[in-house]
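Input record (Table S2, row 448):
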Amino acid sequence: MFEALSTRLNGVFDKLRRRGALSEADVTEALREVRVALLEADVALPVARDLIAKVRERAVGVEVIRSVSPAQQVIKIVNDALVEALGGGEGAEAPGLDLNAPSPVPILMVGLQGSGKTTTSGKIALRLRTRDKKKVLLASLDVARPAAQLQLQTLATQAGVMSLPIVPGQSPLEIAARAMDMARRELFDVVILDTAGRLSIDDALMSEVAAVKAATKPHQTLLVVDAMTGQDAVNTARNFQDRVGVNGIVMTRVDGDARGGAALSMRATTGAPIRLLGAGEKLDALEDFHPDRIASRILGMGDIVSLVERAAETIDRDEAEKLAAKMKKGTFDLEDFASQLKQVGKMGNLSGILGMLPGMGAMKAQIGNAKIDDKMVGRQAAIISSMTAKEKRNPDIIKASRKKRIASGAGVTVQDVNRLLKQFDDMSAMMKRMNKLGQKGLMRGGLG
Ligand code: GDP
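Output record (guanosine-5'-diphosphate complex):
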């Protein structure tokens, strides 16, 4: 459901990444475009405004990590702000349902008619039975629509769980009491109470749902909203939150082409987390809502985000700065190359990472995508460590006989040694070019 937003944001960040250094004007322009993209995706105005303000504030104060580009850091900051808007980040609740309560755990399903409430009840029941091995009871409190209770009964059969026997003429409160009673007697783990919906918010509906809630004290009151209704879903949620009180949101029809903004506004507007997503009509089309995964789906740049995270965690700052200074002075030798490789090696699996590191793009292009792995880094480190100190400082003296000695010392072929020397040559040449440009490519003193 986030395709359009994702495409827009990708465009903004592509532009940003083509610049080596970022001026304040670049960042401001990019954020302006991010804001427009959010609004076009139907994110509520105050939510978009807050998000941009947060990103700007953090971008200004950010410490530059030398091993990643400023644009990548901006992307990471936007990503973190998105994760927070989606209800994730530090201190957030675990994704999915919260069933941490004494059995039988009552779950109350509320929402407008047609939002997917009954289908979602069936989906949750199926998942709890099959994945979590729970004994689940389904009960429909919808006495307004004659077919509603039968519909839930059919879904229960499909999900392989019990449904409360239908007794005509009972009120929603009576049905709820009977369901809880049966669940206690027959030792059910979870009772899912599906309430009646209306086509739009009305007082009678709200009072009915509030009364059921007061009587059953549900551990989770889940509001089901249709993602396709965009901003209306957010308004519905605000209403339910004010008048009934919910502690979780299920967003359905995310398999459609909804613009996704509602998902981004939901947390800020209601305070309740989106817990689950409905992604189809079938009973197994239910997903936990992971703010971090959704954010990287929106940005389409999960690789960059984790790169920046890992770089910040593992790259030795002093070491990186020493190397950068040597690059600048043109005294970078094979010893330094080895220590750069070690830093890269620390970041774990390398596919796709090398090309993003400043100065390593050329190397990656040479080696080709497929062969970049930890083994290769190890082999290269072994080659370099088979060299004498003099050779490392002066690679030019490494001719045929030295190559043979180094190769056998490292347990590789002479071609491997040649390849490494060629990479080092290319890299030195590139650094000289960079130095001629006066290191304009690196931004100094923060991103702001
Ligand atoms: P209720 O009135 O809120 O109980 O809504 P229903 O559960 O009866 O769902 C209304 C319609 O939406 C049904 O045709 C469902 O199959 C369909 N539906 C429910 N959830 C989803 C979903 O996640 N994706 C899609 N594509 N359809 C859904």
